[in-house]
Amino acid sequence: MVRALTEVILPVILVAGLGAFLARKFTIDQTSTNKIQLFGLVPALAFSSIMKTQLPMGQVVGLGVAYLATSLAIGLIAWVAARGVPAKSRGPVIACAVVGNNGNFGLPIALLALGQAGLDQAVVIFLFSIVLMWTVGPVLLGSHGGPRAALLAIVRLPALWAMAAALVLKATNLTLPVGVNAAVELVAQACIPMVLLSLGVQLGSSKKIHVTRPVLLATALRVVVLPLLAWGVGRLVGLSGLPLQSLVLACAMPTAVNIAMIALEYSEDADTVASEVALSTLLSIGTLAIVVTNLPVFA
């Protein structure tokens, strides 16, 4: 436990803490930093990871199926559990339980806990998670754009195009010119520290946490129930070893910070989402330490 806290969790806290400090001291445009990540850093990391990874396509599909199946299962559990909360909070409870922070938190912790091989798997899960966030998230939080809007949201995700380009290059045994590849690698290497700083900025700019029944319910589902559920679902779909550990670790992450931004756009109860994001992030420090310590058990 001490090793997990000092070698995996502490570096994340320190870098995110620097971001929170900067957010308190200076005015930082979060919209711009998010665009830098979404349109620049994450696509470069996705491209680089796909080009370098030795993951067979079957394992990529298996991870994706397991992650989506786990998300569906926790969504159904949250839907049943949220029937006792006010109607305007039901969608936010489900969204907070389903959509995890597999970018800001997930990527650096996977790297520190499971090494480069774990990071490769975490990137795959992250790509599935951002599709989930930008399609299911708005629907659960009140958007009524329909299937067309959901499809457009997927098409607009640059990380998916970067991933597709990398798959084409690998399939044809082609590579980028040396200078271009070096530039991509530089941007990719900047991704993890930048997303951590951004996480700190977002949390440092957050307001007071309102501890209400919907907030506590969503947090319990996200940081306590979901990791155990992921282990069960992963076993059912045939995962074992590092892929299963990666799935459990990914599902132990707190709620995605960006879901609070989506809630501001669509939800009538954005305060519940913002409070749940902050609370789940704080509590996940302890639960993640437990999960990281027991990763050998999940193999």
Topology:
Layout: H1 2-25, H2 30-52, H3 57-81, H4 87-98, H5 106-140, H6 146-155, H7 158-171, H8 178-204, H9 213-236, H10 241-251, H11 258-266, H12 270-293, H13 295-298
Q: Please estimate the helix content.
A: over 70%
Mean pLDDT: 86
Q: What is the CATH architecture descriptor?
A: Up-down Bundle
Tell me the number of strands: 0
Order of helices and strands: HHHHHHHHHHHHH
Number of domains: 1
Number of helices: 13
CATH class: Mainly Alpha
Rg, nearest Å: 18 Å
Strand proportion, as a percent range, falls in under 5%
Spans of 5+ residues with little confidence (pLDDT < 50)? none
By helix and strand content, what is the structural category? mainly alpha
Terminal residue distance: 18 Å
Question: Multimeric state of these chains?
Answer: single chain
Q: Biggest sheet, open or closed, and with what strands and sense?
A: none
Which of globular, elongated, flat, extended, rod-shaped describes the shape?
A: globular
Question: What name does the CATH topology carry?
Answer: Na+/H+ antiporter like fold
